[in-house]
Specification:
alpha+beta, 2 domains, two-stranded antiparallel sheet, 41% helix, elongated
Length: 152
C-alpha cells in the first residue's frame, strides 16, 4: 500500500507499507499527521508537494522528474536495451558515444528526466535508430510513480 502523508494540506511524505499492515503502521501514520491517504491505485501517482483540498490531491504543476537508475532502465523494453548494448559493443564512433552515455548513467546518482542532457541522450538513441521518437517521448514524459522517484 502506498500512502500520501498530508500535513498543513500538503503531501509531505510518500510511504510504502505492507498490504496486510500487521505492524499497524497505517494507524500510526493516521494519528501523527493531518491525513493519510491510500494512493496505491492513483494515476498519476501523487508526489511530495501536492496539495489536498479536502477531497482531492492536486499537483499544482509539481512533478518530481528525478527517478532511480533502475526505474530509468525499466522504462526501456528488453529489445531496446539489447539493441543499445549491441550497438555500444560494436565499436566505432557511435559505439563509443553509447559507451560514454552508459558511463554517465553509471556515475549518476539518479536520472532527471527533465534535464536537457537526458533528453539529448534519448535523442541520440532515436537518431541512431535504437529507439523510436514515440518511445523516447513515453520514457521522458510519463510521470514517475512513487516507486520510481529517487528518494535520496
Amino acid at each position: 500500500m502506498i500512502i500520501a502523508v498530508v500535513n498543513d494540506w500538503v503531501v509531505t511524505q510518500i510511504i510504502t507499507i505492507p498490504d496486510d499492515d500487521q505492524t499497524g503502521m497505517y494507524g500510526q501514520l493516521a494519528s501523527s499527521c493531518q491525513i493519510a491517504i491510500d494512493i496505491t491505485n492513483a494515476f498519476p501517482q501523487p508526489q511530495i508537494g501536492w496539495t489536498f483540498d479536502g477531497a482531492n490531491l492536486n499537483s499544482n504543476g509539481i512533478i518530481n522528474w528525478k527517478i532511480t537508475k533502475l526505474a530509468f532502465n525499466d522504462r526501456f523494453q528488453m529489445s531496446e536495451l539489447a539493441a543499445i548494448l549491441t550497438a555500444a559493443a560494436s565499436g566505432g564512433s557511435e559505439g563509443l558515444e553509447l559507451q560514454i552515455l552508459q558511463q554517465r548513467q553509471n556515475l549518476a546518482t539518479y536520472i532527471d528526466l527533465s534535464r536537457s542532457d537526458t533528453q539529448a541522450a534519448l535523442g541520440l538513441l532515436v537518431s541512431l535508430g535504437l529507439l523510436t521518437q514515440s518511445r523516447a517521448a513515453i520514457i521522458l514524459t510519463t510521470p514517475p510513480t512513487a516507486e520510481e522517484i529517487y528518494q535520496g
